[in-house]
Design brief:
The chain contains 3 helices and 10 strands, in the order βαβββαβββαβββ. It is α+β, with helices and mostly antiparallel strands and 169 residues long. Strands 1, 2, 3, 4, 5 and 10 form a 6-stranded antiparallel beta sheet that branches. It has a two-stranded antiparallel ribbon with strand order 6-7. The protein has a two-stranded antiparallel ribbon with strand order 8-9.
Amino acid sequence: MPAVVIVGLGSNLAHPRRQLARAIAAIARLPGTELVRVSRHYVTAPVGATMPQPDFVNAAIAARTTLRPRALLRFLLAIERRQLRRRTPDTPRNAPRTLDLDLLLYGRRRVHLAQLTIPHPRMHERAFTLRPLRDIAPAATIPGRGLARRFLPAVAHQRIARTRAYPLR
């Protein structure tokens, strides 16, 4: 039985809108996966950055997939690597990146593994995940926390501006 998943996308290097478009196309080609909705793009200030860096372009997608959570995560990390995202032990957290793909929700499941926590543990604290999520799933619920949209007032101070949408073909 396919699960509906939400993936958050972000980039602030090497033509961010193109990075997101390539990633969305790659996700749509994953085995057993069908793209359902794509949010608008948002320009956002870096959150938790320890160094000056460009703004991010963020979005979210909803997809139906038969892939299990760990398998989906492996595919998402492979897409990041193909788009030159490098994760090394000495890379500072929240550093600039060509692509960041976060598995935010996997249906109503809760998963706690060494490399994967679903729902994403900080998604309710970030405008760059909540606003695109509202575009594609206005009634989305974060398992264990409740309606995602109820967290929007708490992140209203985070700078975020809507840009043009990615055309779903």
